[in-house]
Amino acid sequence: MPGPNTETPNTETRNDMALPQNRKLALATATALALLTAGLAWQASAADGTAAKSDTVSSEHVKHDPAPAGDYWTPERMRAADPAPMPVVPGDTAP
To answer: What DSSP element (H or E) covers 43?
Structure first.
């Protein structure tokens, strides 16, 4: 029940505070387009692999037969092989 110094807003005052129909439509359209754009951008980044990388690592165990490598590296090839270059760390003074 309203007190002596309070007024109950009438219907005209409440309708004046409401958004016009065209403003509601514009806001709804802008919101829908923003969500659609964000969703499409997210899908595109996921499809081309530029999405943020997660901390999850996946791997699978692959078993290789060492026999072909042993067959390839004969004693003659081992003697003729050049050593692989070792990486150099900038600023490292070790020989």
So the answer is: helix 21-47
Query: Are the CB atoms for 81 and 75 separated by under 8 Å?
Result: no
38 contacts: CB under 8 Å, gap ≥ 6: none
* pLDDT tens-place values along the chain, 95 residues long: 555 555 555 555 555 667 788 888 999 999 999 999 998 888 877 766 555 566 777 788 888 898 998 899 999 999 999 999 988 888 877 66
Please give the angle made by the CA atoms of 52, 55 and 58, to the nearest 5 degrees.
110
What whole-number distance in Å separates Cα of residue 51 and Cα of residue 46? 5
Model confidence, pTM: 0.34
58, burial (CB in 10 Å: exposed 0-12, middle 13-18, buried 19+): exposed
